Amino acid sequence: MNGLGLLILLTVPGLAHSIQYPCGGSCGLRAPIPAYTPITYSYGNVAYDYGSTRIVGGASAMEASWPWMVSIQHPWAPGQKHWCGGSLISADWVLTAAHCFDKIENISMVYVVIGATQLSQPGPGAVARNVKKVVIHRYYKRVDYRYDIALMELEQPVQCSQYIQLACVADPTLRLSELNNCWIAGWGATTARSQDEGDRLKEAKVRLIDVKLCNSSDWYAGEIHPYNLCAGYPEGNIDSCKGDSGGPLMCQDKNADFWWVIGLTSFGSGCARAKRPGVYISTQFFYDWIDYNMRTQAVESVY
User: Fold this and answer.
1) Does residue 199 carry a catalytic annotation?
2) pLDDT tens across 192-235, in order?
3) Which residues in the chain belong to E strands, given as ranges?
4) Which among 229, 246, 267, 296 counts the fewest CB atoms within 10 Å?
5) For this structure, is 177 an active site residue?
6) Residue 26: active-site member
7) Which candidate in 52, 90, 148, 240 is catalytic?
């Protein structure tokens, strides 16, 4: 990654939990228009694939359903140029996965689209921003997706609107076991072996899966890190997939209408396989890292 301008920052434990949300002090709020109607899914024969970008077994999201969703784009990516997903967590910071930048040789070519549901027709509520820098966890390793987390600083901040809101980052006090309305979202193809990326944002409801079960011998057999989450279904059929990388795993607060981003799409064995659910990076585990790096931008080394 020589010449990328990527920053590798220190992990600093024990910091106060103080991520600031400038949109009127709120985060995780979904747009009141249009009215959102939950979708009922059929868990029958759902096509899946090993490579293309998609939410497998999902359905199209309504306009402004997930207003913190970010499409990270690159001009060399096929179709609508979508490369990875991300979450807007401040006016000028996006949270995503570190492995999204493995093949990026020039960060100045990367840009983001925020506030869009359909990429070919982003609409008046969407904005695009260039990327000022990318911050990757210093211990990230592509070989096993350890510490697969990154932050992107935008060149210019964005304004909140009906279509653009900030994600709430799960803090260490949140009890994930009490959350039962959880969703994933992302752009991409939705049929097996399709080479075309999706144009409209897809979403799917998932269940959190016990990490010990997920890491057991006939599931992931020890490949799950202590800071990973698993979500999907034991039988498969519904899942995030490769190009949904960096996108959010979102759960509704048990006592309120707002939503938490509790995970970032990291890896999986194929897509939508039985006993191989999607594996996510826990934002709760990395809350201090996120907070520290957004506030200080302390540089250990620059590539």
Assistant:
1) no
2) 344 445 688 989 899 999 999 999 999 999 999 999 999 998 87
3) 6-9, 55-56, 59-60, 69-73, 82-90, 93-96, 111-114, 127-137, 150-154, 168-169, 182-186, 202-209, 228-232, 239-240, 248-252, 259-267, 278-282, 301-302
4) 296
5) no
6) no
7) 148
